[in-house]
Amino acid sequence: MLHNCSVQHLTPPAESVISSPSLVTVQSPTVPIVELSPPSPHPTPSAESSTPSAESAESAASVSAESPIPSVSAEFSTPASPSQTTSSIPVSAASHIPDPATLAPDQPPSASHIPAPPPPQPQVSPLVHTHPMQTRARNGIFKPKLYHTNLTDYTYTEPPTYQAASKYPHWCTAMNEEFSALQRQKTWSLIPLPPGKNVVGCKWVFKLKRNSDGTISRYKARLVAKGFHQQYGIDFAETFSPVVKPPTVRLILALAVTYNWPLKQLDVRNAFLHGILKEEVYMQQPTGYVDSTHPTHVCQLHKSIYGLKQAPRAWFESFTTQLLTLGFQPSSADSSLFIYKDGPIIAFLLLYVDDIVLTGNNSFFLSQLITSLSQVFELKDMGKLHYFLGLQITRSSQGLTLTQTKYATDLLTKHNMLNCSPCKTPCVPNTRLSTTCGKPLTDVHAYRSLVGALHYLTFTRPDLSFAVHQVCQFMQAPTDIHLTAAKRILRYVRGTIDNGLFYTPGPISLSAFSDADWAGDPNDRRSTSGLLVFLGNNPITWSAKKQLTVSRSSTEAEYRALASASAELCWLRTLVKDLGLYLYDPPILWCDNVSALAIASNPVFHARTKHIEVDFHFIRERVLRKDLQVKFVSTVDQLADIFTKGLPSPRFQDLCSKLLVPVDSIRLRGDDEVNDTLVK
C-alpha cells in the first residue's frame, strides 16, 4: 500500500529532477520535505505505464532511510552538509499523489480525481556549492594539527618543557637521576600544606653539557624552584654568595705553570642539594613525579634546591664548613680561594659555584683530598684541567694556553656572524661613540645580550677590553651605530678566533702599567683609565674604565689612573701574601706622564691638586712605605695605551704581541685596507 504523503515547500528545480522513474537524492535546503502519514484505507490506482508500484515506492523509501543513494548528477557530486535534508522518493509517484481534501467521503480515489500538475514555479537557486572543484574540507578530510614540539628532535637540543622531554629516553634517564638524587639527599618531606603558608612552584630545566670540542658529554636535567614566588622575610633573607674573581683564576694558573704544579678539575653533582635551609620553605611536587598516595601534599624543603634565592649562599656555607674541617683557610683577598699549608705541603682550591680547580705541590695529598671530599659530596673527578668556565686550557712543556675558541664560535653562530668578513682592529681608530648618534634600536635586549657575551670574552682577550668598554656605556638606550660597533668586535673576533693568553714560567714579581686618555669621552668629557698588571711575564689583570669625575688637566687624569692602579696592586700584593709567596722587590708602577710622577714621588702641594688630595695621600703613603715604586716609561713602550683609545692597526698589533696574545701572521681584510688574502 502506498502511504499518503504531503509535500511541503516548493517543487525542486528542474535541474535537480530526473524525468525517468528513478530515485534521486536531493541535497538543497529548498527540497520538499516528505512527511509520511499512516496508511490510507483507500486503494491507490495503479499506473503501470507511468508510475511504479506501491511496493517499489515503499522499498525505495526504506532504502533511502537505511542508506544514502549515491548521486547520479554532476551537480550533486558535492557531499551534503549536516544542515541539509536528504530525501529519496520516486519522482513519478510523487507527482500523482491525490489530495484527500478533494475526495468525497467514502469515495475511493480514481484517475479522474488525480489533480493536474501544479503550474511551473519560478526557479529558486539552491544554496549549494555548484563549483566542480573538490576540497579536503568538502570531502571531510582534515589534516591533524602539528605543533612545533612534535616537529623538533630534542635528541641533540634542549627541550623547553617536561612534556617535550618525556618523549626521549636520554632526558627521561636524566630526570630519573635527578629525582633519585633528590630522594637520596632527603631534600624534602611530603606534608599537608599548613594554613597561611606560601607555596613555591617548580619546573624541569634541561641542559646539554658539552666537551671543549662541542660533543655531548652529558644530558642534564635539573629540578628548579620558582624563586620568584618567594617572599622576602618569610621564606628567604640573605642571598649573597661569592664566586672566585677572574684575576685570581689567572694568578693561580700562572703560579701552577711557574712551579710546574698539577692542575685538577672537579665537579660537584647536585651541589645546591648539600646546602641546609634555615628558613621554612614549601614547594609543589615536581611534574611527572607526583606521589599517587598523597597528590595534594606539598614538599617541605630541608635542603636548598636550585632556583631558591638563598640556595647559592647555603651551598657555599656548607662547602666552606667542610673545607675548614680539612685544614683549609679562605683568603682575605678572595673568599672563594681556599689555601692549605701544613709544613712543606701547599694546596690551593678555587670554587666557582659547583666547579672546582685544585692545585698544589704534592700530588698524593691532592688525591687524598679528593677522596675525603667524595665521602661528603658527590664529586666527579674530571682529571686534568682542560675546560673550566668556558676556558679551553692546553698545557705543554713550554707553558699553558688559555683560549675561548668554542665560546667565541658559539657567539658568532648565535648572531649569524660566523661567515662575516674579518677586520684588523676591534674598533675604528681615533673615534669615539656618542649617545646622540644613530637611530634607537627597537630591540634593546639583543644588544645587551651581545655586549654581555663580549664582556665575558675579555676573560682571555685583553685586546677587546677598550672596544667592549665603549659599547657597554650605551646599554640603556643603544642605537644602530652602537650595534654596528658591537658587530665590528665580532668581525675582529672572527679573524682572531684562536687568539688567547700563553703563560710561561717566570719570576714571582709584580709590575703594572697605567695610562689615561684625558677628556676622551665626547658625552661628558671624562677621562678613561687603562691598567695592566703582570706576574713575571704573564698578564694577570687589566681594565679599561671611565673615571668618576672630570679631570681639569692631563696630569690630573694620569694621577687618578695611578691611584686606581695602586689600589689594584695593593689587592694583588695581599693575595700573593695569603698564598705564602714572598716578593723580593716592591711592585713597579710604570707611567708615561712626568708631572704625575713628580707629584707621586715628591711631597709637593699645589693649588691645582687640592681637590685630588685623597688620591695624593694614598699614592704617597704607598711610595713612602715601599709598597710600590713609580717609574717613567716612554709612550712607545706604554702597554696600557691599548686600554684607553682605539689605535691604528700597526700600533694595535704591536701591543697585542707584547701582551702575549698570539697574532695571526695572515693579513686580515679590514675596513681601512683590503688584501687579496682571505682568512680561512
UniProtKB/TrEMBL annotation:
Region of interest: Disordered: 32-127
Pfam families the UniProt entry points to: RVT_2
Record field: compositional bias (Low complexity): 45-90
Domain named Reverse transcriptase Ty1/copia-type: residues: 186-428
PANTHER family: GAG-POL-RELATED RETROTRANSPOSON, RLK (RECEPTOR-LIKE PROTEIN KINASE) 8, PUTATIVE-RELATED
UniProt protein name: Reverse transcriptase Ty1/copia-type domain-containing protein
Organism: Fagus sylvatica (Beechnut)
